[in-house]
Amino acid sequence: MKLRPICKGCNKNHAAINYVKEGVRHYRSLCDPCGRKKNKLKPRLANWENAGYKKKNVCDYCGFKGIYPTQFTVFHIDGDLKNVNMVNLRTICLNCVEVVKRKEVTWKRGDLQVDY
Ligand SMILES: [Zn+2]
Ligand SMILES: [Zn+2]
Questions:
Q1: For every one of its 116 residues, what pLDDT tens digit does the chain have, with 9 covering 90 and above?
Q2: What is the DSSP string of the chain?
Q3: Ligand 2 center to residue 116 CA distance, Å?
Q4: Which one of the ligands is nearest to 8 CA?
Q5: How far is the CA of 44 from the centre of ligand 2 (A)?
Q6: What is the pTM assigned to this prediction?
Q7: How far is the CA of 101 from the centre of ligand 2 (A)?
């Protein structure tokens, strides 16, 4: 059995799994964080995620409590997707998205590029 290799980028983490074929795991040469660094042109994380903001399970707008993170989205109050200051970020349930879009015209969804 092939041992899981160590990342060639940082020499610290285990390499990420590339694919599994016939029960055999094939690995990449880099770990997940290093692989992501390499793919800088195609960021998979939203700006607010990179800034360390955690999507809540409660809507900041109506107080709705959700079960799944996909029931919520993160808005930038000033509409600037680069402004990841915590006071600029709000977790909004998908129900309130419609309300916010009409009322607070500057608010912008910050996670449209994230695929789940
Ligand atoms: Zn690494
Ligand atoms: Zn809500």
A1: 568 899 999 999 999 999 998 988 999 999 999 988 876 655 578 899 999 999 999 999 999 999 999 999 999 999 999 999 999 999 999 999 988 888 766 788 886 554 44
A2: -PPPPBPTTTSSSBPPEEEEETTEEEE-SS-HHHHHHHTTTS--S-HHHHTT----SB-TTT--B-SSGGGEEEEETTS-TT---GGGEEEEEHHHHHHHHHH-TT-EES-TT---
A3: 20
A4: 1
A5: 25
A6: 0.55
A7: 12
